[in-house]
Structure formats: structure tokens, C-alpha cells
Amino acid sequence: MKRLHRRFIDTLRLHVKSGHGGMGLPRFGGIGGKGGDIYVEAKEDFTLKKTLNAEPRKRWSAADGGNSHKFRIIGEPAESLSIPVPVGTTVRLDGVKILGEVNSVGDKVLVTKGGTGGSPMNQYNGQKGQAHNIQLELKLLADVGLVGFPNAGKSTLLGSISRAKPKIASYPFTTLQPNIGMAEFHDGRQISIADLPGLIEGAWANVGMGHKFLRHVERTKLLLFVVDINGFQLGPQHPHRTPTENIILLNKELEIYSSNLLEKPALLVINKMDCPNAENKLEKLLKDLNQLREVCTNFPEEFHPEQLVTFDDIIPCSARENRASINHLKERLREVLDFYGDQEKDQVKVVTKARQQVQKLLSERSKHLV
Question: Are 236 and 345 in contact, with CB atoms under 8 Å apart?
Fold first, then answer.
């Protein structure tokens, strides 16, 4: 089990130390070279595990600047050092302040500045470089994020809708690390889908695997809730939760982590519709969803979501048995993503047009004043 956990790294803490500035030369007014800066740089097809393998001690140091001497009055500046990381990495200073993000190959974030070289301004003493701890946090970049309790069929769904081959079994916590699959269409369009380890009731209190993997849905464009039509029970000591209760509890867990997640477009998949009596259970679930706020009152107050998620569509399916339902889901994912993508483009056009009008007005006023 421990070996499985180590396959995927999504956080990494490093100590970084930039180079010192070189010494100046008072006799000739020589200036020392600048110490090397340290950057975090996004590389293609990279992982945080590769970052760790590149420097297992997790200590990165840049070179010092060259000293000034009589044969070279201006000291040689040290080269900058780049720490390779995967696309989608957030860089935090001491695990708190965000220094920046690298969301495209080649993006860089400056994490430490090299010391300035010795000069008349500092009595020709080269200045020390910066040194501190940084934390790298990977947030997977995917179009769709799967959210659900363990054993809801998320991995089966991902395998059916894409080329991914996640581990699948009939017991909870099969998925111990995020998986990404790619749904492909006849015209070449591709949609990336991230499957995350299942949440469980009380994840906010670090029960099960906690909330740590929810960071990976922060950058997704759409949430895909996956619920077992039969409900879910983690074990004999836990209560059995109906599909309606699962939706409410998932809603609450996401809200506790970040209410911003509830603003994302969302689809609800009712899975395992090939099970006996599934149609009757579905009928009751749809009735509950029409009066979800009232249904919430059956829960203790601490379980009541302040904001209910709004689903753009509710899709019954059987990820294992019914290929037609999977194809329908693929098409709906594409339609909903395109719909919201077009809305964003329209908003950008409106903002751009407004800015152009403002610039035109300012330009006309400037001419008038002249």
C-alpha cells in the first residue's frame, strides 16, 4: 500500500539558496559579479517525482558571482539556476505566500535573487544571496474532474470514456492517486478527464484520504459528480447513505474545501443503472433532487450545505454494461464544455470592446486638449 502512495507526488518542499555576489576590488574600483538567481521553470512531460530525482537532497543552490580582480575589473556574473517542474505547479514561499504559477511550458517564477556584487555602494563587499524554503504544489490541468465517494464507479467510467487504464476493483479506495484519461472524438477533438481518489464522509476532518486531492479539480472547467444508484456504505460501522444523501454530502465536502468549486459547471452521473430495481431508485432520486433543500433538513445541521450545486444535466448510465449511455455522456460533456467556453469568449469580446471604446474616448479627449 505504501509503495502505491509513492508513485505520485503532488507536493514537494525544497530549500533554495541563490548565489552570493562577488567581491569588488577597491584599488581599481572593480565591481563583483552578481550571484545566480533561482527560478522554477515548467518543462514538458515532467513530474514532481523527476524534480525530486534530480536533487534527492531537496537543496538547490546557485553559483556565486565572480570576484573582481586586476585582470577582470567587472566580476563574472553567475548563471541563473532553473528547477524543472511539471506544468500546473504553484510555488509557495515557506508554504504560505504564493510566488507564482507555471501553467505553460517555459513559464518561469523567480524564487530567490542572487546577491549583488561588491561596489562602492556596499564597501566592495559582495552581498549574500537569498535562502528560504519553497513548496511546490501540482494541480493537474484537465477539462473535467470526477468527484464521488469510493466505489461509485469513477475508475470504470474513466476507462470506458477514455483510453486510460486505471485500477478497478469492487472495494473502496482502489484509486490512490489521480489518473488522467483522454476522451477522443471522430473529428479529432480531445477532452481530458481527471479521476481522483474518492472522498468519504468527514474528509474535511482528514477522514480517509482527506481533502488533499481536491486541489486537482480547482483548475478543471467542469465537475462530473458520479453517484452509485445503490448508495454507499464504507463499512459495517458506517451508516448506509442513499444516492440523495451522497449528493448532499459531496456538496458539503466541496463547499468546506472551497465554495468556488460549486460555481463551476457540473454534470451528475447516476452510475450502475444495470443493477436490479435501479429504475425505481432513480425515480425517487429525481424526486428528491427537485426538493433538495427540503431533503437537507433530514440531516444534522452541520451537514447542510449553504450553497447547493446546480447540475447542468443528470445522466443515468452503466459505465460497465451500456456503451450507448457512455457515448451520450461523452457528447454531453463536449456540449456543456463548448457552451461555457463560448460564454467566456463572448465575455472577453464584451470586455475587449469596452476597453477599446474607453481608449478611443481618451484619445479623442487628448486631441481636444491639444
Answer: no
State how far the Cα of 60 lies from the Cα of 344, in Å rounded to an integer: 40
Domains of the chain, CATH where assigned: 9-138 (2.70.210.12), 144-344 (3.40.50.300)
The pTM assigned to this predicted structure is: 0.72
pLDDT tens, 302-349? 778 889 988 999 999 988 878 899 899 999 999 999 988 877 767 656
Distance between CA atoms of 182 and 202, rounded to whole angstroms?
Answer: 31
**Using one digit for the tens of pLDDT, what is the confidence trace for 68-77?**
998 899 999 9
**266-271 and 97-102 beta bridge pairing:** unpaired
Cell of 339: 457552451
Name the E strands within 44-189: 59-61, 81-86, 89-93, 97-102, 108-112, 131-138, 144-147, 179-184
Give me the long-range contacts of 237-245 (CB less than 8 A, separation at least 24): 238/201, 241/149, 241/201, 242/285, 243/270, 243/281, 243/285, 244/284, 244/285, 244/288, 244/289, 244/292, 244/295, 245/299
Say which residue the cell 505547479 belongs to. 89
